[in-house]
Amino acid sequence: MLLADVRFHTSNLNLVKSLLVNTCFPDFFINKHINRRIQTLCKKSGDANRIDDNVDNNTFNRILIPYVRGSGESLERILRSVELFVVNTVPKKLNLLIGRGKDKIEIGHRTGIVHKLDCKDCDLCYIGQTKRYLDTRINEHRAGIKKHSGNLSVVSNHRLTNDHDFDWSKRNILHYESNNRKREIAEMFCVKKNPKTINLKRDTENLSDVYDGIVTNT
Questions:
Q1: Average model confidence (pLDDT) for the chain?
Q2: What is the DSSP pairing of strand 113-118 with strand 172-176?
Q3: Would the pLDDT of 164 be above 80?
Q4: Which domain of life is it from (predicted)?
Q5: How far is CA 167 from CA 10, 106, 123, 141, 153, in A?
Q6: Fewer CB within 10 Å, N- or C-terminus of the chain?
Q7: Is 134 exposed, middle or buried (0-12, 13-18, 19+ CB in 10 A)?
Q8: Distance (Å, rounded) from C-alpha 138 to C-alpha 142?
Q9: Contact 106, 179 (CB under 8 A)
Q10: Which domain holds residue 167?
Q11: Which has more pLDDT, 58 or 92?
């Protein structure tokens, strides 16, 4: 700036400001650092008169408008006539486009969930939770009937005792939770809320009575 003629100080500063505004720096940040830089240059040169004291930090009243091809230029000319400086923004930011490009996780590959299995032959169901893939847990339930009778799960016991089977293709996810303890609480909450589960009573013994009112009113 010290190399420029004093006549160009205002226009040069405004050019710098407009460039910084277009890169999304806030006004207070721009003015703060430009003024700090001017003061430093003045001290180094020992000639404060080289800097135009009448530089207006608010030369432009800025307005942010999403750019629309075809009408953006016309709107900018109109607003400039009333001393408004247009800063065009991008309607679709890159993070939105990238987010949409992610592959959708199949329901069978979801983890950290509370899920429900419906019996195909009656109105009862089983509610469980797992930190692993849902399909992995369901396959374990399906294969559980092959275990020794003393080690049968409530799902296998219901199948053998009543000659029923579950709808393995209908995978209902009731809740997502990565934290183990919170997921266990969510499982107990869902079991207690549903009166038609085959879950054992001990499955909800660790659920505090504090939740009773919530279970009743939801």
A1: 79
A2: antiparallel
A3: yes
A4: Eukaryota
A5: 75, 18, 12, 11, 17
A6: C
A7: buried
A8: 6
A9: no
A10: 107-217
A11: 92
Report if pTM > 0.70.
no
Q: Quote the tokens at residue 142.
A: 């399906």
**Separation between Cα atoms, residue 178 and residue 129, nearest integer Å:** 11
Instruction: Report the DSSP beta bridge partners of residue 197.
Output: 125
For position 50, what pLDDT does the model report?
45
C-alpha 32/C-alpha 1 separation (Å) is 17
129, 194: one domain: yes
Instruction: Count the Cβ atoms, other than its own, within 10 Å of residue 10.
Output: 14
* Residues 80 and 127 placed together within one structural domain of the fold: no
pLDDT per residue as tens digits for the range 168-183: 999 899 999 999 999 9
Write down the residue that tokens 């209908």 correspond to: 170
Long-range contacts of 91-97 (CB under 8 A, 24+ apart): 91/66, 91/67
What is the C-alpha to C-alpha distance for residues 122 and 101, in angstroms, rounded to an integer?
42
* Residues 136 and 210 both lie in one domain: yes
- Residues 27, 111 share a domain: no
Q: Mark 35-69 as b/e (b = at least 16 C-beta within 10 Å).
A: eeebeeebeeeeeeebbbeeeeeeebeeeeeeeee
Per-residue pLDDT tens digits for 21-31:
776 666 777 77
